[in-house]
Amino acid sequence: MVSRRALWLVLGVTALGLGGAGVVLPLLPTTPFVLLAAFAFARSSPRLHAWLTNHRTFGPMIENWRREGAISRRTKALSVAVMAATFAGSWLAGVRPWILAVQAVALAGAAIFVLTRPSAPRE
After folding, report:
1. Which listed residue, 4, 24, 119, 122, has the most CB atoms within 10 A of its CB?
2. What is the dihedral of CA 72, 78, 82, 88, to 10 degrees?
């Protein structure tokens, strides 16, 4: 039987991989996957948790969320800009109207969530 710790570790590694992919794929969010990875690593691997929370790029993101439930202004602006560019690209590519409608609802929901979080005190 697989241990809970091993399952948390697999979840953490998977979430971190998806978060890394989200850096270059516009429809895949980075922040939630990095936060999930930190949560999972805290339950499975103190070494990986420490590495992730002290990471130059991901560490401040995790700390801002942990302390304040906050997202940096830069991340908010970049997130909303990528969402808008994704929708514009779909529209310019001639995606079917019903798909655009679903995409608009999903992206609007994500944008509202991001924009209504407190702004982080530090980047």
Report:
1. 119
2. 120
Q: What is the pTM of this model?
A: 0.71
pLDDT in tens, 53-78: 999 988 988 988 888 888 888 888 88
Q: How large is the angle between the packed helices 73-92 and 97-116, nearest 10 degrees?
A: 170
Domain boundaries, the chain: 1-69, 70-123
How high is the pLDDT of residue 122? Answer: 58
What would the two tokens of residue 58 be?
């991901």
d(CA 57, CA 99): 34
Render 14-61 in DSSP notation, one character per residue.
HHHHHHHHHTT-TTS-SHHHHHHHHHHHHHH-HHHHHHHHT-TTHHHH
Angle at 46 (CA atoms; ends 41, 49), nearest 5 degrees: 45
Other CB atoms within 10 Å distance of the CB of residue 103: 17
Evaluate whether 62 touches 53 at the Cβ level (below 8 Å): yes
